[in-house]
Design goal:
The protein has 3 helices and 31 strands. It is an alpha+beta fold. α1 packs antiparallel against α2 and α1 runs parallel beside α3.
């Protein structure tokens, strides 16, 4: 009997100890959770202040700190979702032209952005703060292409009347000009300009099937290439090693590649029945991305021009594309007014979509370090973006109903925990 009583007392003691330990653990966990909540609230306030002050590095770090990891509870609320959305809002908007801005380029040293407008000028901006430091007159005709020499920093512009001018940056001392006596009559308001990677050659075209390969020092035409009677050449692109030059043929949606120096045609490919607006060579030289008037963005093997599977597209024309310096991302601009940042090597990752332009986005360029993106639009502005890193779709509680706002910026949901959530 005594032994049975002792056993019961031991069991009671064990239960009591377990309850005490569990209560202590719960108190500690509640305390840890409350500390985490207070840290989250403090960090969200700091993040908002950092966004307003332009401290984007710490702003991103504060948001990333609260992504759930190691099985810990997700404390993020609508405020985190809102601040996360600001990563992909333009860091800076600059009014360049009262009408349209067709072309934009970023200098290799990261110091300057050049934008070509409908008024015939190239506006040179200080990349750090958007300050306008020079306006360079190409002609009285709209500027359709802008390119910055990667070695010397010269900026060249091509206008619709076939004028080609080149200046030094940032002051704007003229290096050369080629202005035809009588501009050819061309119905297409499209131009192209591209410096070879070593800055030796400048390839240009404006509104017809002729491509001029120029001496980068004085603008002399060294070679004229014919695209074979097509209506115009909207894009020229050098291979990363400078040994090949590719030209988009707007119609019938094809591409020609020449060997640099001999100017022998190496290969020709056909993308689609629509127009081709851009070709972008990946930094490793392995792929070419092509944008279509049907909205599709094709991915080709550069050595064979064979098509690879791609699900990248815009609504309306896909007008421009450029690979990030590390070759991991492809940024594209479209008639839908959007800039999209894709991960072609990881097709399952959704694109980052940058919204803010009020009209067609015609051109874009990466900063040399790949941390910023600049875009130009027919709304008369350029925008500088922080495209951010890959992000997954925010996981919400189980949802009964949801509805998007007409402009696509907001999603309202009704959830199982009786909360209403507004996500930007």
């Amino acid at each position: 009997m005594a032994g049975a009583c002792a056993a019961v007392l031991v069991v009671i003691g064990l239960v009591a100890t377990t309850v005490i330990v569990a209560n202590a653990y719960r108190v500690a966990e509640d305390s840890r959770l409350e500390t985490a909540r207070q840290l989250y609230i403090s960090d969200m306030r700091l993040a908002m202040a950092d966004w307003e002050a332009g401290n984007f590095g710490r702003f991103s770090d504060l948001l990333d700190r609260h992504r759930p990891r190691d099985g810990r509870r997700d404390l993020r609320g609508w405020e985190w979702c809102y601040l996360e959305s600001l990563r992909h809002v333009a860091v800076q908007t600059i009014e360049v032209d009262p009408d349209d801005v067709y072309a934009v380029a970023w200098s290799r040293d990261g110091a300057w952005i050049a934008a070509g407008g409908d008024d015939g000028n190239i506006t040179v901006l200080r990349a750090a703060n958007g300050e306008s430091v020079a306006r360079l007159k190409v002609s009285d005709s709209p500027v359709r292409a802008v390119a910055i020499n990667p070695e010397s920093g010269k900026v060249a512009g091509v206008s619709h009347d076939h004028t080609v001018r080149c200046w030094t940056l940032p002051g704007g001392s003229e290096v050369f000009v080629d202005s035809p006596q009588a501009a050819p009559q061309t119905p297409f308001s499209i131009g192209a300009a591209a410096w070879s990677p070593d800055g030796t050659w400048l390839a240009t075209s404006a509104g017809n099937d002729q491509i001029q390969v120029r001496d980068g020092r004085d603008g002399r035409t060294l070679q004229v290439l014919s695209a074979g009677g097509v209506d115009c050449v909207p894009c020229l692109e050098w291979s990363p090693d400078g040994t090949q030059l590719a030209a988009c043929l707007r119609s019938p949606g094809s591409l020609i590649v020449w060997e640099a120096g001999t100017w022998k045609e190496l290969r020709r490919g056909h993308a689609n029945p629509g127009y081709t607006y851009f070709a972008a060579w990946s930094p490793d030289g392995a792929h070419l991305a092509l944008g279509s008037s049907l909205g599709y963005i094709h991915l080709w093997k550069a050595d064979t021009l064979e098509s690879e599977p791609s699900r990248m597209e815009h609504t309306g024309h896909s007008l421009w594309g450029e690979w990030s310096p590390d070759g991991d991302r492809l940024a594209t601009a479209g008639q839908d007014g959007l800039v999209k940042v894709w991960r072609p090597k990881r097709p399952g990752v959704a694109p980052v979509v940058l919204r803010g332009h009020r009209n067609t986005v015609w051109s874009l360029a990466w900063s040399p370090d790949g941390s910023r993106l600049v875009s130009s639009s027919l709304d008369g502005t350029i925008k500088v973006w922080d495209p951010g890193a890959e992000r997954s779709v925010q996981k919400l509680p189980a949802v009964y109903f949801g509805a998007w706002s007409p402009d696509g910026r907001w999603l309202a949901t009704s959830a199982t925990d009786e909360r209403s959530i507004l996500v930007r």
